[in-house]
Design goal:
globular; six-stranded mixed sheet; 2 domains; single chain; 19 strands
Amino acid sequence: MTLGLAVRRIGSSRVKAYVMAAVWAVRAAAQGGVVVFLTALLAHPATAADIIAVRMADHGGYTRFVVEVSANLPFVISAVTGPDRLRIDLPEVTWKAPSAETTGTGLVRKYSFDDGAARLVLDLAKPVAVTNAFMLAPDPSHGWRLVVDLAETTPEAFASTQNLRQGSAPDSAVVRPFGESESPGQSVGTEGKSVPPVPQTPLAKGETKPVRPAPLPPKKRTEPHQIQRASASPAAVAAKGPPKGKEEERRPVIVLDPGHGGADPGATGLSGIFEKHITLAMAIELREIFLATNRYRVVLTREDDVFIALRDRVAFARARKADLFVSLHADAIANSEIRGLSVYTLSKEASDQESAALAERENKADLIGGLDLSHESRDVANILIDLVQRETMNHSALLSRSFILELRRAVQLLPKSHRFAGFAVLKAPDIPAILLEMGYLSNPEEEQLLRQPAYRAKLGTALVRAVDHYFKRRKAVQP
């Protein structure tokens, strides 16, 4: 929970005043115990970081890839097959490196920078294992550096970890100390002791070195009902090279959250199609529509059939300093006659019994992965979160009105299409968020529509117009 980031992102002087008043009140109540907590929260930088340089070297048994940046950053590393690539996702960053040279060396054939997604993509010469990934503290000659060590592995091992996400945030990053070199001679371990260079063989499957990988997702099942995805032109999906010329104005960051995934299939349609496939196809296609406008940065909480806990989806959005969070879903109910899209925003009290039941079903997703969010709250943190969250909920309501205004022109909506419930995935205190129920898989006509790329494109275009409308209205009402 990052209160400083929360206040900055909302940008409301009224909320800032409320929070500062609350700080002193809570401080008195807690006898000073919260002061250190708040100091840490308010210390994070609010501005985008710069990529200063990219370096790499082949050290025989492994390849080291170094990204020099202007600040200590969270990062997410994921592997993708067909062809084999590594993706390094960062918060909003600006390319300031002196050269656009992207030729690789060793296990890295070449790399590219996708400005729209704040992502470095490494095209690999061979399958690799990430044996080390850490932030290296500045020294007199260099700024912060993200260091990634790659060792060759088998195609089977690489494919089996293609959904593995590795990362850390400034609050909890394993940061190597001042004085350590990015050269391969000797490196300093997490306890400060000297350790040998990175071995030629990958880490054992259960071993945890500086970056602690998330649990491996469940293995994919072969399912009879797959969703047809729209084919995008190569120009639309290819990673862009480093941007050139004048620095662009900051573009809003939109996090698209395809509901469910992995062991959690979500609702099942009349034909047997799973909700998790519909939401993922929609999210991937919607991202391309947003990026084509060149007005937004867009990231997905998942790009494959993998289970991600609800709180991790929220944390992912907050680490990316998201301006909007849109969670995509498609429900199924007993009455197959009901159809229509609806928009949900966070509320402590549900707008109706059906909304309460839906929120209960969606919030149980974490229980499938062995997580229970019911005991996560801290009294002091909740007092402060509530103050910021009130303003965020107002922005979410504004967002929902923009969505409904545009969507009613393109698709069929439910009566009373703006609804409220306590969805766990919408509970980031500082990010305007909505949950979009795109329709009912229990309705035969709507299920067929949601399986068609042309219909999803129509829906996606309306969503982009809605987001455009939201930002215009928000800018107009800001003091």
